[in-house]
Amino acid sequence: MWTNEWTDGENAATCLLDGTVLSANTTGVLHNTEISGGGLSETFPGSYGSGYVTAGDLVTVSDGTVYGLVKPSATSTNPDLLVTVNPSNGVATLIGATGFTNLWGVAYSKGKLLAFSSTGQIVSINPATGAGTLVTTIAGKAFYGAASNPLTPK
Questions:
Q1: Cβ atoms of 49 and 92 closer than 8 Å
Q2: Most buried of 16, 29, 92, 129, CB within 10 angstroms?
Q3: Is 45 in contact with 30 (CB distance < 8 Å)?
Q4: Does the pLDDT value for residue 116 go beyond 60?
Q5: Is 145's pLDDT higher than 90?
Q6: Do the Cβ atoms of 62 and 151 come closer than 8 Å?
Q7: Strand 81-85 to strand 92-97: parallel, antiparallel, or no bridges (unpaired)?
Q8: How are the residues of the chain apportioned to helix, strand and coil, as percentages rounded to the nearest 5?
């Protein structure tokens, strides 16, 4: 039976290659959660640092790289930023600005990062530069997350 709950405002999560769930709360504090034997163990590897807070989701790709969407502060209206996240210590390394805001979901498919916004935008993000390109906007749609398999080939 699960006796522990995420109560810190978790709004980003991905599954690492070893099956551990890496999540981040709204302030950028990371949690590693492992489920075994019907129990739940949780560790806190650290936080993004550099004042970053979670803007959107996390995604793991087949080589183990973890990408995340962050912003420089909770009140920032600047475009969301693409970072890589070290799952061992939580530290985020800036790749670049996406050019878009409110990207709350991110997935990986066929060598591309795809981000999804609360305003119905689907954005392709260059994993080397962070630059985003609008793929389409679905009128009346709001995305609040995304998922993909970490074993998707890079």
A1: yes
A2: 92
A3: yes
A4: yes
A5: no
A6: yes
A7: antiparallel
A8: 0, 50, 50
The answer, yes or no, to whether residue 63 has pLDDT greater than 80, is yes
Cα–Cα distance measured from residue 43 to residue 142, given in angstroms and rounded to the nearest whole number: 32
| Cα-to-chain-centroid distance, residue 66 | 8
* 28: its two tokens: 């950028």
Please state, in angstroms and rounded to a whole number, the distance separating the CA atoms of residues 102 and 113.
16
What is the residue extent of each domain of the chain?
10-137
| The domain over range 10-137 is classified in CATH as 3.40.190.10 | no
Q: Answer positive or negative: Cα dihedral of 75, 48, 22, 84.
A: positive
Both tokens assigned to 54: 């979670």
Is residue 151 exposed (0-12), middle (13-18) or buried (19+ Cβ within 10 Å)? Answer: exposed
At 114, give phi and psi (nearest 5°): -120, 125
Q: Are 127 and 114 in contact (CB under 8 A)?
A: no
Q: Which amino acid is at 40?
A: L
Of 10-14, 39-43, 90-94, the least confident: 39-43
Cβ atoms of 104 and 119 closer than 8 Å: no
Q: Which amino acid is at 89?
A: N
